[in-house]
Design goal:
10 strands; 316 residues; 10 helices; 3-stranded antiparallel β-sheet
């Protein structure tokens, strides 16, 4: 009796992604690839891609781009310094870009403009159900600065031009004959975070999914070569942290934990309500429990993550 070939979901994911991307490419005019970029979050997966490039396991890129919210934990900046030195041995620059000089939280508290919404938690006072606000911070402080830098690179290399409209605004128009490749550190166990992103001149590539590598495979790949394994990357104030993260921040980096607590307190202050939550009937919180961050018992049972949505757009 002939054996029946059974494919797991993880086996079929790369095939589906490639078919969708190929269909999208066929529907557009032919473009020549003129640049290749790695979007770095300085966590395990994107750091693995950077190390693969250094080790010659992946084709080189023109630049590695890190979007700095200015509110990253210290271990992220330590990892950036380390990778910058590693990439320099291959002549690859690590570009640090930022939307503002002071950062997301400073802009929220002191900025004169609109507050980029964060995925903060809130509770219905009638039912006690927990809800979460929509997220704009990733788009405005991670994706847009990275894309802006690539557009500037295209202008500098003659593949885009500056357009001045009637209102006096300047924008960068990318040639219809070119495209760029963008590498993201999304692993196979996070395939649901993959998909097309960015404008039509960008080609999205997921090398870890192509190699069927999970996060644990990335850690193993780094250890086998004697390379450092970084800790999870994300903003200090990110509401998607699990209790293990908050506990580590409180124990090992108390000054950073206090900064997060102060921002959490500010969200429910008169000034915070005036600037951000005035249209809401209920308070908002950084922690999913719906209580002030400084009062949370991180040793309590059930301290696992409620959501795992951040690594995607925060470049992992």
């Amino acid at each position: 009796m002939a054996a029946v070939c059974q494919l797991s979901l993880f086996d079929t994911v790369p095939v589906v992604i490639h078919r969708l991307e190929a269909r999208r490419v066929r529907s557009q005019p032919a473009r020549v690839c003129v640049g290749r970029f790695l979007h770095l979050g300085a966590g395990v997966q994107s750091s693995t891609l950077a190390e693969m490039i250094v080790e010659g396991d992946l084709a080189p890129v023109d630049a590695v781009v890190f979007a700095d919210t200015k509110d990253e934990p210290p271990w992220v900046y330590e990892q950036l310094d380390y990778l910058e030195g590693r990439l320099a041995t291959r002549g690859i620059p690590l570009e640090r870009v930022a939307r503002s000089a002071q950062g997301l939280v400073h802009d929220a508290i002191h900025g004169a403009g609109r507050f980029a919404s964060m995925p903060l938690y809130t509770q219905d006072p009638r039912t006690g159900q927990t809800g979460i606000l929509r997220r704009q911070c990733t788009s405005e402080y991670k994706i847009e600065p990275s894309d802006d830098w690539v557009r500037d690179w295209l202008v500098a290399h003659g593949h885009a031009r500056l357009i001045h409209d009637k209102r006096g605004w300047t924008r960068r128009q990318v040639s219809r004959q070119v495209c760029t490749e963008h590498l993201y550190g999304i692993s196979l166990d996070e395939f649901y975070r993959s998909g097309k992103r960015g404008p039509g001149w960008q080609r999205t590539v997921y090398p870890l999914i192509d190699r069927r590598m999970r996060r644990s495979d990335c850690e193993r790949w780094l250890r086998e070569r004697g390379l450092r394994v970084p800790y999870k990357s994300s903003c200090v104030h990110c509401p998607f942290h699990d209790d293990a993260y908050w506990r580590r921040l409180k124990t090992d980096y108390p000054a950073y934990f206090e900064r997060a607590c102060q921002f959490d307190d500010w969200l429910r202050s008169p000034e915070g309500r005036r600037r951000f939550t005035r249209k809401l009937r209920q308070d908002v919180f950084l922690h999913r429990s719906g209580i002030p961050l400084r009062e949370v018992d991180f040793e309590a049972p059930g301290a696992g993550p409620l959501f795992e949505l951040c690594g995607d757009y925060c470049m992992t």
